[in-house]
Specification:
This protein is an all-alpha fold. It has helices at about 10-50, 55-80, 90-95, 110-135, 140-160, and strands spanning about 50, 105-110. It has one domain (about 15-160): Ferritin, core subunit, four-helix bundle (Ferritin, Up-down Bundle). The chain has 5 helices and 2 strands, in the order H-E-H-H-E-H-H. A two-stranded parallel sheet has the order 1-2. The longest helix has about 40 residues, at about 10-50. It binds fe (ii) ion.
Length: about 160
Amino acid sequence: MTTAPKITEAPSDLAASHEIAAGAAQFLSPVVRDLEALVVNGKHLHWHVRGVGFQQIHELLDGVVAHAQEYADTAAERIIALGLPVDSRIGTVAEKSSLPEIADGFQPWEQTVAAVVGQIDAALVTVREAIKGLDDIDLSSQDIAIAIEQGLTKDRWLLQAHLAS
Ligand SMILES: [Fe+2]
């Protein structure tokens, strides 16, 4: 009679997978929170834009928000897939996001564009820190951060081009 081999993780594998999960959580959680802040602030700016650039910027911002939500989902689910939770509660996002405060109320479209570019720039700093930090921890998580960096940089360009002379 033969017995099936037991499938167990060796202690070194367990330590390695714990290190990967902890690294992903450390570097991707701030990315998730910045992107969730970008979702909320992006919508606020989308609603309050005014002036001749209204239509284009109003529509562009819906894209920025949709992308940020999608990126946040991908980054958060990477952490969860590795077995750790992520704190993306609204209070935590408000307390810990690196995005600068934005103006309340209506504003001319040029100021709206500058404000969104400022939001994206802050998020990009966090994303690039994640890319750097994850380099020797987990390449799959780093890939996610790289894809987010590419997407945010493209959205930044689509907005910033409206202000370039
Ligand atoms: Fe809308």
